[in-house]
Each structure stands twice: as structure tokens, then as C-alpha cells.
Amino acid sequence: MGEVTVHALRNVDIDLYAGELLVLLGASGSGKSTLLNILGGLDVASSGSLYYHDLCLHTLDSDGLTEYRRAHVGFVFQFYNLIPSLTARENVKLVTDIAKDPMPADEALQLVGLGDRLDHFPSQMSGGEQQRVAIARGVAKRPNVLLCDEPTGALDAQTGKLVLSVLDRVNRETGTTTAIITHNAAIGMLGDTVVHMSSGEIVERTVNSSRASIQDIEW
């Protein structure tokens, strides 16, 4: 920025394990979203190495990263990113139509508790319902990794707990490796692993002996 060099991330060394639920905690500007975007192949690090199994992501070109995202990664964002003119089913089918081995859109929506809202448009849904459509879209292609950027940031506490319960269920039932970034420390109780970030660095990593239930979280 002008004459100032900003290190969005530095000295980051992290592993994600198959089937785990990882929570990335930190204040705004701590580097959480940048890290998530690099893990998902949306951004490319200026230095360092990134591997998905034996695939060297740091050496892939734009087409290679697109194929990586298409084949392996699901995304859930804070503001849903649904297409207003499409129904819940149609929003999910945007992903299933380009995936190699997707679950049916109806099945994905059933998984997140929206089996009775298949033909509703986003304007006919609450914020929590729209976020659950976004989760269904993220998991419908059966990704190996699900990356969630502040999935409860635009929701009230009660609705946020409902959305987190869906993510917890998806992780447990599908075995999808799930990473959730948040500034809410209480959400860390849900994770198998909690990583605290500050000023672009990992300052603490905690492994929970057992994951808390949604009912145990106090916002």
C-alpha cells in the first residue's frame, strides 16, 4: 500500500486432516480470509508451498486451480451469494451440473433441513435458510474440503447456532474436512482443532479432546 509493505500472512505452517473440523479464530485483519482463499485456490501465495495430498497447488496455473476448486473444494461465504432469480434447487444445481459425482440437489437440501423449500426463491427465505442453501450448494458436489468464511457473520445468535449445527452435521455425516473462520471465540468449542491468528501469523493451535455440542455454546 504505497510505500508500506503489508504481509497478509507470514510464517504460516498448517495441516488440515481428513474429516476434521477446524476453526480459525482471529480479529478482522488477522489474515483468516486470506489463508482460507489460498487453501481454496482462490488466491495464490507470493511465496511458500501448498499441497493437497500430492498435488502441488503453488505450481498450478489458473486452469489448474479452477480444476482443483471444481473437483475438491466447496465454499460457504458470509453473504450467501445466491442468484435471486433461481430457486433453492436451481441454485444448488449450478454446482451439481458441473461436478463429476454430485449428490442430487434435492438430497443436498434435505441434508440441511430444507426439503420443504426446494422451489422457494431467496427472497422468500430467511437469512438462515439462505445460508443453508449456500451450505447445500457447497456440499452437493461431495467436496473433500469445505471452506466457510464467517458463515454466521450476518445472522443473529439463534439462527447462527442453527447454521453451525448444519455444518457440524455435514462434517460428521459426510466426513468432509471442514474449516470455519470466525471472530467468535465461542465457536472454537465446536472444532476438533482451533487455530488462533493475529497479524497474519498463527499464534496458538489447540486440539480439543472432545467437540462441544451446539447447546453448550454461549454467544
The percentage of residues in β strands lies in 15-25%
Rounded average pLDDT: 93
- First and last CA, distance: 36 Å
The total of beta strands comes to 8
Fraction in helix: 25-40%
Considering the protein shown, what is the CATH homologous superfamily of the domain at 21-81 and 144-216? P-loop containing nucleotide triphosphate hydrolases
Number of helices: 6
What does this structure look like?
The structure is a single chain. 30% of the residues lie in helices and 17% in strands. The protein contains six helices and eight strands; from the N terminus they run E-H-E-E-H-E-H-H-H-E-H-E-E-E. Helix 4 (105-111) crosses helix 5. The chain has helices at residues 32-39, 62-72, 88-96, 105-111, 127-139, 157-174, and strands at residues 21-25, 51-52, 55-56, 73-76, 145-149, 177-182, 193-198, 201-207. The protein has 219 residues and is an alpha/beta fold.
Q: What is the element layout, followed by pairings?
A:
Elements: E1 21-25, H1 32-39, E2 51-52, E3 55-56, H2 62-72, E4 73-76, H3 88-96, H4 105-111, H5 127-139, E5 145-149, H6 157-174, E6 177-182, E7 193-198, E8 201-207
Parallel strand pairs: 1-6, 1-7, 4-5, 5-6
Antiparallel strand pairs: 2-3, 7-8
Helix pairs in contact: 3-4, 3-5, 4-5, 5-6
Spell out the key features of this protein.
Rossmann fold, single chain, 219 residues, alpha/beta, 6 helices, two-stranded antiparallel sheet, globular
